[in-house]
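ok so for the tutorial part 2 we go from a plain amino acid sequence to predicted structure tokens. step 1 is just haveing the sequence, like this:
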Amino acid sequence: MSSYKYIREEAYEANMQLPELGLVLFTFGNVSAADPNQGVFAIKPSGVPYKDLSPDKMVIVNFDGLTVDGNLRPSSDTQTHAVLYKHWKGVAGIVHTHSSYATAWAQSQRDIPIYGTTHADHTTADIPCAQPMNDQMIQGNYEYETGFQIMDCLLNKGLTYEEIEMILVGNHAPFTWGKNADKAVYNSAVVEEIAKMAFLTEQIRPDVPRLQASLIQKHYERKHGANSYYGQ
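step 2 — the prediction. this is what the tokens look like for a chain of 232 residues:
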């Protein structure tokens, strides 16, 4: 059990950020923190209120979605996390929330267009929305299929999980990921803010144009790549 102490603490601390950031209501969300070397991740137990969480309550699951340590049932979204960890090298944190604005865009089945520099600071692409599942997938192993729904969306849109770390699942809600759980939580807060800004922008000007390509590249490259100069 001691070998899982670090990821249990990381998962706990990351989960506790969700209510602090206003990204969850009641138990509507979860964070996992992975140890790729051991092929396992720690994830929030299903349906447990955030005020009742502690590091030792985080459940340890392998990349096949099987519980290997813990007395509680893991999040109902565990199979989705497992699929993504199994296929995505370098990802060690995943977040799923039902934050209001990002979920509203997911329910509308729309990508979030890139309208401003806040969006461009994080990616040069629209935030993709995966198409809703077909009936056969829904009636099968739903959470497992959600992982492939996410991966197929990126593939079909010519995107990779390295270049964009956030997605909307059509009719459902957002998922984000990163090199660790803290970065995945950061991305979860970012996609919610981008979704809110895009919604408000369209209310102010329904025919708003997309951000010009030169400004997209400028803002993205200020923070990313060999020639970035933002920060210390």
